Amino acid sequence: MILKDGVMKNHNWANAQKMMKDPKRFIEDIVTFDGNNIDEKRLEALKPMLAQDWFNFEIMKGKSVAAAYLCSWIVNIVTYNTIFKKVKPLKDAADEAQATADSKTEELKVVIEKVRLINEQVDALKEKLAEAEANKKRVEDEAQQLQD
């Protein structure tokens, strides 16, 4: 009742029966329950119950199998939520870091392409310089021959 509807008072059997009067709908509500976003107020209200020695599958199974499975679900969904709240910021940070890395990789590709083009231009200029130096040498050699 605390998890599903946020009921903080009157946790009696009659109210629980009202909550579960349509078993199909109750099971759908349990299956579709958002374990990622449990209000802190609800988690605080559950702490005393979760701390009880008898609030576990094995002991509850002696009273009722259905109650045991519901108890197990409560314990597991609260545990899941606790882990989710610790992992979510880490996952968000990892996703953000990956997005930054992807962005920087794209920027790097652009820079590498620019460097490649500049290197091609430098290589072409070096070839022209080599041709010009060879031409200069040829002209100087020819001039020297003519002077000789």
What does this protein look like?
The protein has 148 residues and is mainly α. It has a domain at 34-109. Helices cover 80% and strands 0% of the residues. It is built from six helices and no strands. The protein has helices at 2-5, 13-19, 23-31, 40-50, 57-61, 65-147. The radius of gyration is 38 Å and the shape is rod-shaped.
Short description:
This protein is mainly α and 148 residues long. It has helices spanning 2-5, 13-19, 23-31, 40-50, 57-61, 65-147.
SSE inventory with pairings:
Blueprint: H1 2-5, H2 13-19, H3 23-31, H4 40-50, H5 57-61, H6 65-147
Instruction: Give the overall silhouette.
Output: rod-shaped
Query: Gyration radius, to the nearest Å?
Result: 38 Å
Largest sheet: none
Helical residues, percent:
over 70%
Please state the average pLDDT score: 92
Strand segment tally: 0
How many helices does DSSP assign?
Answer: 6
Oligomer: single chain
